[in-house]
Structure prediction request, 1364 residues.
Amino acid sequence: MLIVMRDGCSPQDVDRVIDRLRQMSADGQVAELSGRTVIGVDPPGAIAGPDALDGLAGVERVVVLADPHPLARREGREGRTVVVVGDVRVGGGRPVLIAGPCAVEGEQALCSLARTLKAAGADLLRGGALKPRSSPYSFQGIGLDGYRMLGRAREVSGLPVVSEVLDEASLEAAREHVDVLQVGARNMHNYALLKKVARAGRPVLLKRGMTATLHEWMLAAEYVLEAGNPAVILCERGIRTFSGHSRFTLDLSVVPAIREASHLPVIVDPSHATGFRSRVPAMARAALASGADGIMLEVHADPRQALSDGRQALLPEQFAALAAELRALSAALDSARETVP
Amino acid sequence: MLIVMRDGCSPQDVDRVIDRLRQMSADGQVAELSGRTVIGVDPPGAIAGPDALDGLAGVERVVVLADPHPLARREGREGRTVVVVGDVRVGGGRPVLIAGPCAVEGEQALCSLARTLKAAGADLLRGGALKPRSSPYSFQGIGLDGYRMLGRAREVSGLPVVSEVLDEASLEAAREHVDVLQVGARNMHNYALLKKVARAGRPVLLKRGMTATLHEWMLAAEYVLEAGNPAVILCERGIRTFSGHSRFTLDLSVVPAIREASHLPVIVDPSHATGFRSRVPAMARAALASGADGIMLEVHADPRQALSDGRQALLPEQFAALAAELRALSAALDSARETVP
Amino acid sequence: MLIVMRDGCSPQDVDRVIDRLRQMSADGQVAELSGRTVIGVDPPGAIAGPDALDGLAGVERVVVLADPHPLARREGREGRTVVVVGDVRVGGGRPVLIAGPCAVEGEQALCSLARTLKAAGADLLRGGALKPRSSPYSFQGIGLDGYRMLGRAREVSGLPVVSEVLDEASLEAAREHVDVLQVGARNMHNYALLKKVARAGRPVLLKRGMTATLHEWMLAAEYVLEAGNPAVILCERGIRTFSGHSRFTLDLSVVPAIREASHLPVIVDPSHATGFRSRVPAMARAALASGADGIMLEVHADPRQALSDGRQALLPEQFAALAAELRALSAALDSARETVP
Amino acid sequence: MLIVMRDGCSPQDVDRVIDRLRQMSADGQVAELSGRTVIGVDPPGAIAGPDALDGLAGVERVVVLADPHPLARREGREGRTVVVVGDVRVGGGRPVLIAGPCAVEGEQALCSLARTLKAAGADLLRGGALKPRSSPYSFQGIGLDGYRMLGRAREVSGLPVVSEVLDEASLEAAREHVDVLQVGARNMHNYALLKKVARAGRPVLLKRGMTATLHEWMLAAEYVLEAGNPAVILCERGIRTFSGHSRFTLDLSVVPAIREASHLPVIVDPSHATGFRSRVPAMARAALASGADGIMLEVHADPRQALSDGRQALLPEQFAALAAELRALSAALDSARETVP
Prediction:
């Protein structure tokens, strides 16, 4: 930690800072740099935050040097993390396509759709057994039995399964049938849940909170990593802004930003962000072009009858066409990326 | 639900809408109003959302008429709700003052502070046993034993106690010692938790999520009300915006807005929103002037040594002075409110 | 305009609405639809806004039906607008590449860069003579002579020129030398300027304000269109949000949204939005993939010496590589778009 | 400027930074502080921004020390600025009440309202001759003759007049009749206008842009101050956020924040922010309680007939009651502020 003193501070101001540091079993190294007195805290990690210097006259700024996310950051690591789910490698170069209904609505429909999606090129199946809904009067999901149905759909289609968990009961039920445990945007700040999910021995798909900064998102990942689970997939799904033309504002520029900051793979969910089926293909293409390691798409055999979020779901044939297109685009981008760094 | 057709739609467009409604066991009443064809869905609640009309040519707009929060809304009710906690009435006209440390740090310090706060005019004691922190490396709270300490502080001070719960285990531990169960801003969208807290037989203090609209906040309250718990206290604590001069942007205009929309009492937490001790008194005054039913303030006997959020905590003597001032201000506002509606 | 009455309103409430309408030389048509009384205002455009009904008991909602942007909207038009600038067609299918320095810094450097950009595949040259800077102490641009330098660079390179104007004096100076007049994000709401620029007889590049909704952006375009100038190019350049990892949040999902809503061509400026050179290529690719009609990029021969925004400028060789890549990507997207609607 | 090197950087990294500084006619002072190599730039102001160090290996962070708003900042000044307008002192302790219609609609109505407002306790009259409206089809103001009408209303009422200017023509017309020149929120970033207004020899009321940070707002004030005009009144009028219950989110916590940062007086406009008459009194009270030096209110004799923003205008009798109340509240706050710092 560095303490930059104001222009024109008094020697007494400097002494009082040193005294405060000594009260906290630290010491201060003083240097004159760029016309200012700068005090370095020694040893470096002795003081946790800038609050410790509160109220001291003459202090202009406190510069914290410690890295807040030592496990999620890219710096100091060789290469990026690949999360392996069955035969699927998330972050391994080839973008993964995750597809399925917003909510599981029944075993037969789910199994049938899963087979269709597999044939159309999906790598993973998504589907919610429990749905966190803004209103208590909205459909809350089919319940814990939905996880079993997802397990059945995995059997018949061969697709590994991603599904959201909300609490201990759902985590318990999901563990048996689900390959990747999803923590939804509304629970990204639910640290009690993050700690429990981390210990479940499954890869975790961590959606960005609708109001989370990149830094907070990495810290949420840090909760999982710190608990000993290295298999974290980040997922951008739109942030909340004033801009009302879409449900959320898909922040695609976070993709290159987080690829610089973290070694973890990052995928994008354009369905929830746009909220309109007609705009999903454009944003899926854009997500891939921004460097995402995968795309997560809602697909429903009959969106008009969907129990939740039907308006944003693609039809199976639309997914098949988009999947083919995204594969072609990915190849085009690969050759492009070889040209420009 | 009303379906407004585009200017110049064809009779076939109207027929297709009616057909769609009939597929859903509803019917459509057609009227020509203001140069447009308007279709009323009959019976009124037959169709859940606008998605059901997706993809139909000629539809310009769907107007949903159902009230999304029948239990939280003010309309149709006599008077506003008063939440009773021991001798304290939240929403009963006299503003309540809730004060205490961000985190419980030890039994003795807490009991001593509680007595001081009681003497200074506090109505309720606040304190966190578990702290949801952005970083896994920050102090996470003293643990479940903190609830017992709060119970002890209640005994010695006579102040009823408010404390946050995070999951089933903390809810279980808190029930015995805590008078008001707090759901924090980061958990406002954690509907699994809301349902469990609602059934614990205690008043609930529901903080507004940092990204929640007024509508979503009322829906979160609706989860508690719908589960049979009528004792909900709303708490504004700042929303996330681009404006970086404070930790969050305290949205005081939500106070008159929610007083129009809901019968539930609403309090304000200026400590978390501003993040700086020096600005807390101004915003506490402003919150009271905006019509809040209470103010929640962080107080710490030695903020520089606080294990979390010390920078925003008032000193006990600052609290005492502010409490006296707020009482005087409240009296001035009462006479003022009699003059202007 | 439709007036939806509350459930349970009285006949007197309805009568008072009709009376109010009659005071304003309009009338009301009453229908019972979906369990509510709905009143249509006749003639349709008689009442400008919902304010006219303020304070009337029993009114639940006022639905305004008039289209707010009759000239910018897509509905009712055949095809999309192509803005022709010399040999360049913006919105004509082939994406345009606009490149150049943030600020004009001197004639020779500009002419040399323009020739390099032309050779590398740029379609238009950009450069600011006057720079609206947040601080009065920052470089404010080379001044009105910069427009002449741009004209000279046009001559030597053959590239048409885009440059921002700020007021009458700069508009006067720019008209002689500049092909496309840019209204910057900070002036999108400067309607006095929009009206003057509209009448200058040049295509207008209208940047989205950093806080503008899609609707407000279209209304700003409407100012230009309504003044008789049909040649408007929209430009997304990032909006202001809480998300601090980039200077602004590039709202790429506005591209498909505005292509649905408006017939005007839309381009994207990823340089200002991201603020970091390293992330510009990813966002340029994503912008193209989202459906943009063009990309606007900052390029500087020596970004470290740039007088403004050097940190986000590409080097000429980076631009050349990116331009080649974007051309290849565009071809890949074209074949893709033929497959998926 | 300080350059903090990464943990583990090489001596060559340090040398390259020093070389870069020397290329820019500066030098570097090296110190080891808190486990890091820190380089101070000498002389202090030699390098304008962090961009100059871009691309250098081993640089972790650049800390800019120069104060960006030397004229607007509070530090180093005795007391706060009082802006004198006739007999009225803005920032002089007694809060000023500014009232009037959104738009000037005619001479007689304006003069009559001005007399009423004067009698009710207003200190200044506000009214727009030209209205910057989002839509070209909305009422754009009565035109330049409106300034003359305001001058006439000043004569008959004795109230000094505040009115917005949009460009050179309106500035010219306003100078003769208007006491305080207002720069509206949409023009806060219009630096060309700020420079012209600054030189008009009148106090300037500078509204905060709806997307402006505190820092940018102070920089806009710095444009006026730097041009030699010390009489700047800041005005908070709401920022744009996701929170849709009000037109804008009134950021009252900016009042204590800017009082700490700047010596300029600050007032609040609750009418534009809330957008609803019923919530204006609560927010006017709150604004006063937050420490504002004045309140700006829209008043209209017949809001339902108002040509713009009638929905948020108070009736004259509502203003009279609110003015009396705010005076009483101000007295209560004065005694309160003496108690608590």
